[in-house]
Amino acid sequence: MARPAGAGGVLLCLPGHQPSGQLHPVSQHSPGRVHEVYFIMNFVLLFLAFLVPFSIAAVCYYRLAGSLSRINTSSTKGHAIKAKSLRMVSICLLIFAVCFTPLNATRTVAVVLKKFYPEQCRLLLRVETAYYASWILACANCCFDPLLYIFGSPDFSKAVRHSLKRFGLQEARAEGEVDGHNLTTQAAHSTTLLDKETASTSSL
């Protein structure tokens, strides 16, 4: 954020990306068209890109959890599978909320501040900083769900452990082959020296 500038007796915040010496304050009584567009776009995005998808996901996960809860499990293994499935459903919904709620909340607060409280520069700067930081969580969402599904699968966990064990055995085998090769080389070198000494003794 740039230094606040006066316009019509009111201090207004100016974007930090404006070049120094080219500040163009906007009057409070005639707000910039850009802020108006951002204000409308924010609520369109908030509704279509967050509230609607989150509501659909919540309803689907709720119905899925209800279906899982009605499954009769008499064995200990079946009960464990049911509990694990319910836990994964809850975690998926929690990941969605944690990743996208901060982004939409901070963006909404920022556009409201710019439109109705343009003189709150310090607060706006903090909100914009939080908004850009929240993009990290939003972008990380594409990694959290696959990791949850992958590492939550017993077959995948077994395959990873098997691969690691196999890699360890291959590494140990390779080290053994290197050591064996070194011993063979040393033995061959010793045999060559011994043959040379024997030949020298015979010639004497």
UniProtKB/TrEMBL annotation:
Instruction: Give the InterPro entries listed for this entry.
Output: GPCR_Rhodpsn (IPR000276), GPCR_Rhodpsn_7TM (IPR017452)
Query: Which PROSITE patterns does the record cross-reference, listed alphabetically?
Result: G_PROTEIN_RECEP_F1_2 (PS50262)
Gene Ontology CC: plasma membrane
Question: Its principal location?
Answer: membrane
Transmembrane regions listed in the UniProt entry: 39-64, 85-105, 132-151
Keyword list (alphabetical) reads: Cell membrane, G-protein coupled receptor, Membrane, Receptor, Transducer, Transmembrane, Transmembrane helix
Show the GO MF annotations.
Answer: G protein-coupled receptor activity
Q: Which domain of life is it from?
A: Eukaryota
Keyword Ribosomal protein listed? The answer is no
Where located? Cell membrane
Entry's Pfam families? 7tm_1
List residues of the G-protein coupled receptors family 1 profile domain: 1-149
In the bilayer, the protein is annotated as: Multi-pass membrane protein
Indicate what this protein is called per its UniProt record: G-protein coupled receptors family 1 profile domain-containing protein
Origin organism is Aldrovandia affinis
